[in-house]
Structures are given as structure tokens and as C-alpha cells.
Amino acid sequence: MPKSLLFDRLLAIGVGLIGGSICLASKKQGLAGHVLGYSRRLETSHEALRLGLVDECVAGADDANLRNVDAVVLSIPVQQYQRVLTQFLPVLPPNCLIFDAGSTKSDVLEVLEALEPQFPGLSSRFVLAHPIAGGETHGPAAATATLFQDRSCVLCPLPQTNPAYLGKVERLWSALGARIRHMNAVDHDEMFGAVSHLPHLLAFAYVASVLNHPKGELFMKEGGAGYRDFTRIAASSPEMWADIFQNNSKALLATLGEFERTVGRVRQAIEQSDRKALEQVLVQAANYRSAWKPQ
Amino acid sequence: MPKSLLFDRLLAIGVGLIGGSICLASKKQGLAGHVLGYSRRLETSHEALRLGLVDECVAGADDANLRNVDAVVLSIPVQQYQRVLTQFLPVLPPNCLIFDAGSTKSDVLEVLEALEPQFPGLSSRFVLAHPIAGGETHGPAAATATLFQDRSCVLCPLPQTNPAYLGKVERLWSALGARIRHMNAVDHDEMFGAVSHLPHLLAFAYVASVLNHPKGELFMKEGGAGYRDFTRIAASSPEMWADIFQNNSKALLATLGEFERTVGRVRQAIEQSDRKALEQVLVQAANYRSAWKPQ
């Protein structure tokens, strides 16, 4: 067996852009011996099979093939975790490794805590992961073996996380070309709430608010490069982002509150022609952003 | 004299990126016979002369060379219009054409109304113009003859605007390669308030608000492509944008109010887990922005 083999039988629950890319890349890298794919929609798992993302389809939790799976990757909306895990865990081996690819983490912790009594030790073999990849496209057809190349993958190990399992998930993501970052779930959600979820919320809200103006569409037709870049993320999937906003509501609403307070200061400075207070905000932002460089 | 000559002696008040580019392009196109340049800072006009943007420098309103100027272009902050016009108009020929390049227009109308009693007919020979160009760079050294090529130039003619003067300004901007749009001053300020000034205000406020978080800088270091594009305009000149926000405060605060109401709806939808209300805003924005194309 190849030196790099990490899992004999990997089950992918969710075989869209993220799950399908993990499967494809794992097969190409020889990290997984045999890859099983499950999707709530049968056509989706069959498409993944046709595209060669997985070796075999699993129809449901009753499938006998699940008994000797040694690793599971969850690439489905976080709100489905509890239902799906409750379905599959009784059939899966009690020691099998599980990791996910969800965009939020505190809510996953809550699911693990809720399931722990029914499935003791679950949170020690569940590795919380968030690969920073994907975007406009979705579905198995969008999956590629290089999706995670040079992207970040945040891992949120728990005190009780099995170090051997954590090591395997780290080796997987490294082999897929990702830069691994460790972070606790709260910092993770605060960080992505601030630098990803809030900009999306504001871009969606901005475009929607201009559309409320009787001449809004006419106005936006004239939008230049600034408008174009500022609103690009407002074209993202509403379903996916509605999920993320709800899953990360606590951290998102906190950072939104700070934003609203800052906008209030800017509004007041303009209303009161307080040039000093106005420039204070603008200079603080411009100084930081001019020096900012992407990682 | 070349067929395309529009002005024998053009005076540029303000010779930075915009004013300097108008001078340079007018000289190259043979639109102006002789170009005089004035700047509040003598070094700036001398730099414009050294760079060949202008043929001659004017030290101040007392300069005898002003007596036979037949056109003036104002490329200075709008708040300086009233002071500068009050200085120069007594010396300039009473029939000389004046046009500007300011980013806001209703406030220019107020200046014209205020000066009309002292300088009768001023608003008939003053053509309000706004070339949509420029951005990060500034100063005479940033001026180019092609700055306005394929960019829009909005003109806001008044009922009393002298049609011959309007025609000359239109021919100038067409010769500089700009697409000319006519609009009234109120629509102009509402439009740019909505599609340019508000995005800048929100981008500045967003970056400043994240910086208020103890870990804000750490968080933004992790910003991806979405963060990068959403915040690009937050690196713009604070001085210039503080001017614009104050000059266009009425229209800007109105569109900001609509934005704040929309954000309030999104916040409430998240707080109340009202999925339908949340998706309504996101879908409206995503549908519009996915179909949007730059002009």
C-alpha cells in the first residue's frame, strides 16, 4: 500500500464542490484507498461517480458498505449535521475518524455536545476543519483536485481531540496543498464573521438598498470600478450565505453592531460638519488598507 | 489656426491629476492655443509648467495675463470655488466661459446662485461638468493626455446655460475621448451618492470598525479575495473623500439612510431566524448583481 495512504475507506457525505474536490484530490494523491460518496439527492452522488470523484455510491445509512469505513468527511450545510450524524453514526464503526469542511465552528461544537451522550467519545474523533476555498461555482461538476492548493485550512482542535486523528487530518490537508492554521472555534467564528461574513452581508444589503430607490437600477448601470469591486461578492449564492449568516449569527451580529456604531459616527460627523471626526475614521481605514497585503 | 481650436487662451485653476490632464490633452489635441496654469501652491503650478502641462504660470488674480483669457477650467475642491471665483472673476473678461470638474453639483449650483448678484450672467457661462476619472493617484505628475479616454463625463446644463458655451464644452470632452451624459444636478448627486460615495463611506467605515476589535488587525491579515475587493476603495484619499462626503451630504445621507434600513431588516431577519425575509434581501441583490455588467 502506498506510503501516503491515510484512509482505507473514506466516506464523503456531500459530494459537491468542496466534498467532491476532497474526494478527487485524495484519490489522485493516493490518500484514500476507496472513496464512497453519499448525497441526499441520488442524482448528485451518481454524478460524482460518473465524474470519477468517488469509487462507489452509498444510497443511505442502511448501506452495509458503511460498516468498515475508517474516515468520514462532512461537506454539507452545518444545519444538516445533527440529522445526518444521528442517521449514520449508529452504522459507522465506533472508532472512525470524522472531519468536516463547514464555514462556521461554534455551531458544530453545539451539535457535538448535543450528540455526545448518545455517541460517547464523538467529539474526540471529530476534527473541526474549514478549508478556505470555493465561491461562485458549486456541485460535483465544479470539483477539482487543485481547489485547496495554496489556500488556508483552519483546524479547531478540542482539548479532547484524539491527537492521532488530528495528525491524520493535518496530513490530508497538507497533502492537498493547504496551509494549516490552528484556531479555537470562537476566534474562528469571530474572524470569519468580521472579514468574510460581514462584507458579504454589507454587499448584499448595499445592492438591495439601492434597488429600493426608484432610479436605483439606472444609477447602478453607471457604476464604475469601485462599485464593481465593492459589490462583486453580492453575486454569491443567497442560500449558502443565508445559512452562514444564521449559523454564525452571534459573531456576525456582534461585528455588525460595531460597524453600525462606526457608520453612526461617520453620519454624525457629516451631519455636524465635524471634519476632524470624519477624517479620523477615513484616515484610520485608509492607513490600514493602503498597507494591507493579501497573504 | 487648426480647425479644432476651441479656446485661444485657457486658464486652468488647479493643475493636479484632473486639471493637469485636461491641459495636457487640450494642448495635444490643439483644442487650446495657449494654456495658463494657476495653483494655490506655486510649486504645483511650476511643476505643471516643467512637465509641459501648461505653457505659462499665473501667480495670482492680479496677473495681467488673465484679461484676455477666453475659457477657465476649475479643477479644485468645490469648497474653494466661491473664494477663488470671487478672486478671479473681477479680472477675467465678463464673457469668458467657465467649466469645472467637481464630483458634486448641487453645491456648485448654490455657489453660482450666491455669486450671481455680484457677477450677473455667471450661471449662463458656467458649464457644470464631472469627468468620471482619476482615483488613487494625484498631483501634476499623475496627469496624462489619455485620462478621459472612454470614460464618462456628466454635464449638468441649466435652463440659462449659454448653448454655444455648452457646445464648446461638449466638443472639448468629446475630443478628449469622453462619453458625454446630460443629467440634472440633483439626479447627478443622487446617482453618485448611491453608486460611488456610499460604497466609499461603507468601505472606510467597515475597515475602521474591524480595527476597533482587539484582534481586528489579526483578523484582516486573513482576508481573502472577497475582503480584498470589498475594501479596495478604503485605501482612497481621506481628504478628497471627506470633501465629497461633506459636499454631497444631503444625497449621501439619504442613500445611507436607505442602506441602514435594509441592514436593519437583515439584522432582524437573522435575530428572528426569519429565513424568508433574509433570503428575500439576498436574492434581490444577487439576482441584480449577477446580471450586472460594467458599461
Can you summarize this structure?
The structure is a homodimer of 295-residue chains. Chain A is built from twelve helices and nine strands.
How would you describe what is shown here?
Two copies of one chain form a homodimer. The first copy, chain A, is α/β, with parallel strands linked by helices and 295 residues long. Chain A has two domains: 177 residues, NAD(P)-binding Rossmann-like Domain (Rossmann fold, 3-Layer(aba) Sandwich), CATH 3.40.50; 105 residues, 6-phosphogluconate dehydrogenase C-terminal fold, CATH 1.10.3660. Helices cover 49% and strands 13% of the residues of chain A. In chain A, the strands form two sheets. The first copy, chain A, has a six-stranded parallel β-sheet. In chain A, strands 7-8-9 form a three-stranded mixed β-sheet, covered by helices on one side. In chain A, β1, α1 and β2 form a beta-alpha-beta unit. In chain A, α7 crosses α11 and α11 packs across α12. The longest helix of chain A is centred in the C-terminal third of the chain and has 27 residues. Chain A is elongated, with a radius of gyration of 22 Å. Chains A and B meet through α7, α8, α9, α10 and α11 of A and α7, α8, α9, α10 and α11 of B.
